[in-house]
Design a protein that fits this description.
Layout: H1 2-29, E1 43-46, H2 47-56, H3 58-65, E2 69-81, E3 87-91, E4 99-104, E5 120-131, E6 140-148
Parallel strand pairs: 1-2, 4-6
Antiparallel strand pairs: 2-3, 2-5, 3-4, 5-6
Length: about 150
């Protein structure tokens, strides 16, 4: 009888753990990304300043900026569209090979027509890294889920 109670108790505990794990997995799988349009920027910086900071001290800049909401302002050098219809704004000085690459949030794809090359813009996004180029072709700071900053 005692053995049967232990088995029943262990089965009950195991069932609760499995249900908790399943609920956690379900909620994480269905979690929506936060809209950055209303998010407060952790840092506000110009395109040239953030590129300069990363090129001088990449480890320190990674510690400061990675996974943070960054608002950058600068000139649009190029507007890229990938094969899936997603857009990336390339910001920076046209004389420089380095830039800030801002992958736009899919919610604002319809607003891309309002952007033009040469336009100065402020945009918010989550910093996901720095892509160095050892061949001298320029390096890129990468921002994802970007939205225009409210002024």
């Amino acid at each position: 009888m005692k053995k049967m109670k232990k088995i029943l108790y262990a089965s009950l505990v195991l069932g609760i753990i499995i249900m908790g794990a399943a609920y956690y997995g379900y909620t994480e799988y269905n979690r929506k990304s936060t809209n950055l349009a209303d998010a407060k920027a952790d840092y506000i910086v110009s395109v040239n300043d953030i590129i300069s900071q990363f090129s001088k001290d990449e480890p320190g800049s990674n510690a400061k900026y990675l996974s943070k909401v960054i608002e950058v302002s600068g000139q649009i050098k190029k507007i890229d569209e990938d094969e899936n219809g997603f857009y990336t704004l390339v910001l920076g000085d046209t004389a420089s090979m380095s830039s800030v690459r801002c992958s736009l949030d899919s919610m604002i794809n319809k607003k891309v027509s309002s952007f033009t090359t040469g336009q100065t813009i402020s945009i918010k996004g989550v910093c996901t890294g720095y892509s160095t180029d050892d061949m001298g072709l320029g390096s890129d700071v990468i921002l994802n889920r970007c939205v225009p900053a409210k002024n």
